[in-house]
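Researcher: Sequence recovery benchmark, item below. Answer with residues only.
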């Protein structure tokens, strides 16, 4: 008599067949863990649409050379009075070689006081980082920086 709490026994052949099918599905579903500059441009286009981006007003502060890409300090400041009539609505960060090109979006309210954000990001490789600010008048402003990474994120052995 078979107990109801026992699991059915699978043959070695069944287990190998199931494992092979699962491995094949995983191989087909894997995509590179690195975006391309074209994917970054598409991500920027998705955020700004057909608007033109001007240079100036935005200051991106990131070290030009980082030893370890696992934690890179980055800050963005935007020249703006930050009042109800004229303010920064959003600051976006993009990069060209990480798995996701849109790193972060910071939404600022009219009472933010200053248009400044700071964070730490991971950089998979040497690449360009772009900061884009959307102002309340609908204009977009940007700054960019090339960051050289000597030890890429996700590669370091422990």
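Model:
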């Amino acid at each position: 008599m078979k107990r109801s709490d026992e699991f059915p026994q699978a043959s070695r052949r069944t287990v190998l067949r199931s494992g092979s099918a699962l491995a094949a599905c995983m191989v087909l579903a894997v995509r590179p863990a690195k975006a391309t500059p074209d994917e970054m441009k598409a991500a920027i286009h998705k955020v700004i649409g057909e608007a033109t981006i001007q240079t100036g007003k935005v200051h991106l502060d990131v070290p030009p050379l980082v030893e370890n890409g696992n934690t890179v300090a980055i800050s963005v400041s935007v020249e703006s009075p930050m009042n109800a009539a004229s303010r920064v609505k959003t600051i976006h960060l993009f990069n060209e070689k990480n798995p996701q090109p849109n790193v972060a979006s910071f939404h600022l309210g009219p009472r933010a006081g200053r248009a400044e954000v700071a964070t730490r990001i991971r950089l998979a490789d040497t690449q360009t980082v772009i900061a884009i600010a959307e102002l309340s008048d609908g204009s977009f402003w940007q700054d960019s920086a090339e960051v050289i990474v000597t030890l890429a994120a996700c590669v370091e052995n422990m």
